[in-house]
Amino acid sequence: MSELKKIREAKYLTQEELAEKSGISVRTIQRIEAGTEPKGYTLKTLAATLDVSEKKLLISEILNEEIKVEEPILIIEKEVTFNSNLVKMINLSSLPLAWFPVANFLPPVLIMLFTKEKSQIVKQIISLQIFLAIISPIVFMLIAFLKLGSASVMMTMICLALANVYIILRNAYEIDKKRALYYKLNFNMI
């Protein structure tokens, strides 16, 4: 795991949030976390944004040295503010169209627009449904082109719909219990 990723996660920041705070693109942050060494302006900006020394961002995993923290790190849990009942309703609104993956993201989008609930968790719910709306037809078409028979095509359709229903219900449970999503993407599509 890269030093940037360790520090970012210790401060409870997503890649998108760090990008927004620092002005560095999400893609650049992803590259650095994948192993590219930050330099110049990027290094200085990330160090300043994360309130760490530039040297700390450059420590390599190859050294396998034990890193000793000189001062205690105060971790403050980020307060997530959203109406959990409304968010749960937005999530569950995908259920009626779970069998039709191309349109399953429309009810949550419409409810988000009408209620103006544009929290990060709502964006994640909609992004996940859009992702499923893209992936499901691709999987379905692959099975159809492989000509495995009408039974396999039908089973694929049923499995995709049931997987979507499970994802929606599991996320609704997590929203209710932990005010978070169980299934989410590492990026937003909206």
UniProtKB/TrEMBL annotation:
Keyword Membrane present in the record's keywords: the answer is yes
Asked if the keyword Transport belongs to this entry, the reply reads no
* Entries under Gene3D superfamilies matching the protein: lambda repressor-like DNA-binding domains
Looking up PROSITE patterns in the UniProt record yields: HTH_CROC1
Organism the protein comes from: Chryseobacterium kimseyorum
Which keywords fit this entry according to its UniProt record? Membrane, Transmembrane, Transmembrane helix
**Which superkingdom heads the taxonomic lineage of this protein's source?**
Bacteria
Q: Where is this protein found?
A: Membrane
Name this polypeptide is given: Helix-turn-helix domain-containing protein
Q: Where is the signal peptide?
A: none
Transmembrane spans: 97-114, 126-145, 151-169
Membrane topology term reads: Multi-pass membrane protein
HTH cro/C1-type domain sequence ranges: 4-57
